[in-house]
Amino acid sequence: MRVIRTKQLSLDALWDSAISQDRVFRPDDFAHLPEAVRRYLDHAIAPGTAIASAVRLKMHGEIKLKTWIPFTAEQVVCWERGFIWSATAWMNHLPIVGSDRIVDSVGAMQWKLLGLFPVMTGSGSDITRSAAGRFQTESMLLPSVFCSDRMSWTSLNSSHLHASFMAQGERAEFDLIIDQKGRLKTAKLPRWGNPEGAEHHYVDFGAIAEEEGSFCGYTIPTRLRVGWYFGSDRFEAEGEFFRATIDDAIYR
C-alpha cells in the first residue's frame, strides 16, 4: 500500500486504506467472555454481520468554544490507523473549517476561519497523546473492535464492564455502563489533556449515550454528550463541550 504522510492524508484516503476482514460475528465465538460482555456484543452486533475494521460517520451538533456553536462533520475511524474528524463550525455566522486527527500515532489539529485564516493549530506529543484518548473513546462507534482477542475484559457487575487494550501507542482503561438489554449508557476513560489550560495530565473523560440507532448490522449511540471530569458534578458545570447526533454510518 502506498504510504501517505499523515498531514496530507485525506478522509477518503484513510477510509480507502481500511482492510476488510474475512470474518463475521458469531455469538458462540464469545461464550467464554463474562455474561455482561456477551450481552453488550449481542446488542451491538447482529449475528452474521461482517467484522468491520472502519466506520465512516456523518454527524451534526454543537461544540463549546466559550459559547455553544453548531457544526456539521464527517469522520472516519480506521482501527488499524486512526481517525480524521473533518468539520465546519459557525461562529458569528462565519465558517471555521478544519480537522482533528490521529493517524499512524501522529496527532494534529488545524482550524481556519473561512478556510483561510488559522484560528487553532496543534501538534506534538501532548496533542498526539490526547488524540489517542479520543480515538480509544470512539471505539464505541466501531463495536467490532471489541471482538478482538487483544481486548482484556472484566465484568464488575451486570451493568459495569471494563476493557483494557492498546491503541495508538496508549493503554486504554475503558469503563462501559450498559442496561439489561446490553444498550450502552455511558463510556469513560482517563484521557491526556489540559481542560484547565495548565499542564497536561490524565483527566476522566467520557460520553453519555442518549439515543441509539442501527446501521449495517451495528447498533451504536446516535446522540452523545461528551466532555471532561466525567462522572463528577464538574462534567455538567464545566466539562461538557461536545454534543453530537450521528446521522449516518457505514462500515468496512
Report on the structure:
There is one protein chain. This protein has helices spanning about 10-15, 35-45, 125-135, 235-240; strands at about 55-65, 65-80, 80-90, 95-105, 105-115, 115-125, 150-155, 160-165, 170-180, 185-195, 200-215, 220-230, 240-250. It is mainly beta. The chain has a single domain (about 5-250), classed as outer membrane lipoprotein receptor (LolB), chain A (Clam), CATH 2.50.20.10. The longest helix has 13 residues, at about 125-135. The protein is globular.
User: Over all CA atoms, what is the radius of gyration?
Assistant: 18 Å
Proportion in β-strands: over 45%
Could you tell me how far the N terminus lies from the C terminus, measured between alpha carbons in angstroms? 17 Å
Instruction: State the major sheet.
Output: 13 strands, antiparallel
What proportion of the residues is helical, as a percent range?
Answer: 10-25%
- Structural category is mainly beta
Let me know the CATH homologous superfamily.
Answer: Lipoprotein localisation LolA/LolB/LppX
Oligomer category: single chain
Query: Could you spell the SSE succession in H and E letters?
Result: HHEEEEEEHEEEEEEHE
Q: What is the number of helices?
A: 4
CATH fold call:
outer membrane lipoprotein receptor (LolB), chain A
For the secondary structure, the number of strands is 13
Spatial strand order of the main sheet: 6-5-4-3-2-1-13-12-11-10-9-8-7
CATH top level is Mainly Beta
- Shape by Cα distribution: globular
Task: Provide the low-confidence segments as ranges.
Answer: 1-7
Provide the number of structural domains. Answer: 1
